[in-house]
Amino acid sequence: MAHVDQSVPSLPPLPPEYVIRRCDRDDLPSVGRVDSAAFSGHDLYPQFFFVQALDIFAGGFLVAERAREVVGYIIAVVGQDVEPRGWILSLGVHPDHQRRGIGSNLTAEAEAFLAGKGLEQPVLTVDPANTTALRLYEKLGYEQVGKLRNHFGEGEDRLLMKLRLTNTRSEPSRVG
Predict the structure, then answer these.
(1) Which residue numbers delimit the N-acetyltransferase domain (predicted)?
(2) Domains of the chain as residue ranges with CATH
(3) What burial class does residue 25 get, using C-beta atoms within 10 Å of its C-beta: 0-12 exposed, 13-18 middle, 19+ buried?
(4) CB neighbourhood size of 175 (10 A)
(5) What is the pTM of this model?
(6) H or E segment at 162?
(7) What is the pLDDT of residue 169?
(8) Cβ-Cβ contacts under 8 Å for 19 (sequence gap 6 or more)
């Protein structure tokens, strides 16, 4: 694993009432509700997307729950470009549970999943107007490496971000 840059703040601890685990089919309606709440005012993923993501990317589809209620999710996948690349496809945390370290810890678990596949520098795309997500990713050591114009259609630009290698976290995964 790459060297951990000690100047990068460590992850906030996951509050003890929260658990991160792999997503299962029964979680999908709740994942859809979290997505809808987290991205209100934006185009949402249709429910079939989450069904297909679970079918295809089950190992990298994680949820955060509190008292058996799904409050966040992340989908990490292995992309097949010229060579394999790890992608953080989607991250959502219900607004009632934001700013508690859930997004940071979900991201760290996704990074650990991808590192287990030999992919230590995941990439992701983010809406340039999503300042909350941009701050989170920058805090976690991601940097902008490009801009994808009209990535999701006319006027739907995205920033391409990549984890700086010196910021790769080396903590073992807590997900079974």
Answers:
(1) 18-166
(2) 18-167 (3.40.630.30)
(3) exposed
(4) 17
(5) 0.87
(6) strand 158-163
(7) 53
(8) 64, 65, 66
pLDDT at 166: 61
Below-50 pLDDT ranges, the chain = 1-7, 170, 172, 176
Contact 90, 75 (CB under 8 A): yes
- CA distance readout (Å), 8 to 85, 95, 139, 140, 173: 23, 25, 8, 8, 19
- Of 93, 96, 165, 171, give the one whose Cα is nearest residue 133: 93
Instruction: Report d(CA 118, CA 113) in Å as an integer.
Output: 9
| Three-state SS annotation for the chain | CCCCCCCCCCCCCCCCCEEEEECCHHHHHHHHHHHHHHCCCCCCCCHHHHHHHHHHHHHHEEEEEECCEEEEEEEEEEEECCCEEEEEEEEEECHHHCCCCHHHHHHHHHHHHHHCCCCCCCEEEECCCCHHHHHHHHHCCEEEEEEECCCCCCCCCEEEEEECHHHCCCCCCCCC
Residue 74, strand partner residues: 62, 91
Positive/negative CA dihedral, 70, 23, 51, 82: positive
The pLDDT of residue 69: 97
CA–CA dist 26, 49 (Å, integer): 15
* 149 contacts 91 by C-beta, under 8 angstroms: no
